[in-house]
Amino acid sequence: MLQRDHLVDLRPLRTPAFARLWVGSALAGLGGQLTVVAVMLHVYELTGDTFAVAMIAVAGLLPMIVAGLYGGMLADSFDRRSVALIAASVTFASTVLLSVLAWTGGETVWWLYALSVVNSAANSVVMATRAAIVPRLIPREQLPAAAALQGISAGIMVMGGPALAGLLVAFTGYAWTYTIDVVLMLGLFLGLWTLPKIAPEGDVVKAGLESLRDGWRFLRRAPNIRLQFVLDIVAMTFGQPLALFPAIGAVLLGGGAITTGALTSAIAGGVLLSSLFSGPVGRVRRQGLGIERAILVYGAAMLLFALVLVAAALGAFAPDRVDAESANMPLIVAGMIALALAGAADNVSAIFRSTMLQAAVPDSIRGRLQGVFIVVVAGGPRLGALYAGALAAVTTLWFPPLLGGFVILALVGVLVRLNPRFRHYDAAHPVP
Questions:
Q1: What domains lie within the chain, and their CATH numbers?
Q2: What residues form the membrane-spanning segments (predicted)?
């Protein structure tokens, strides 16, 4: 019989400010996923090139890094509510323009690239600032629960968003998809607008090079925080096949845009389920060991997904033809199971990493470290898109996740062995 303490801890939602921020962020995130998947499909339709799809993420990498770092500095220098609202306004304006272009037929590949870059940069500032706000709204012992609730919202928006995007693109077109994102994004303003003023505590350092150097000096003295960043980059660089999904749906598994949405949603399904049953995760004290084991499971899941693609390439369970109208359903289901396992493992790692960062880092520097965290979380998948897209262009669609799975297992084992203190990190006595 399922015990209640196995389920997600809902105590953070008893804090009204956190609850409004959580709901608003979830609505905006759902709309954002509509646009992310729609832009991928849009570029693939215009170019027919998987590498061009991968370059959407790569093009936004440098602006996202700069915005994430600078946004973190702003969060440590000014009212965090105001910083988040301004950045959210930029995201909203760029999405409105994307919708207008789609309705008027003025969209081009370069417009899609440019607006994706603006969105990724502004979202980096919003996410870094919002993450720095959360520890000011709830007690420290509720931080793992807050991270698990974030996993629930992420799971819902990533599971519902891509699937809905695939259906909307297939049956209504791109303009309606972008427009719905505009409407849903209004929820983010509701969550942010109703927050109290949240100025950084402690010594405030003016945003600039000295502030950045101050954050870097802290990170050099924080081996546990530093290693969790490195481990996440490894996992996301070599285990992020998202850019391959449009081509997989078009030529390998079949089903076109609907398969693309289904595969992406499977990852989110794993995130959602692992968050719903995250009660035991919140009670784990050796969070460094938990991160290591979760990422090893993630690497194994990527190997399993690669084997599904190998089976598809060999024609296993294939119908008479594989295209946008005819799909290899048995292998699509198998691929979704592997990706759900990957999503669950990544979410468990994310809960531990987020809790470690928010509990072990002082408030006066939390914005800058959250900026680095967002750069890692968002930048890793972009490096992964480059890795997967470039390698698939010169080999085949199943080779990037196959090689990546082995690389993750090897590198994680070596890095943690070289830093044994990471395994003994104690959540009751957080040391960065």
A1: 9-424 (1.20.1250.20)
A2: 21-44, 50-71, 83-104, 110-133, 145-169, 175-195, 229-252, 258-282, 294-317, 329-352, 372-392, 398-416
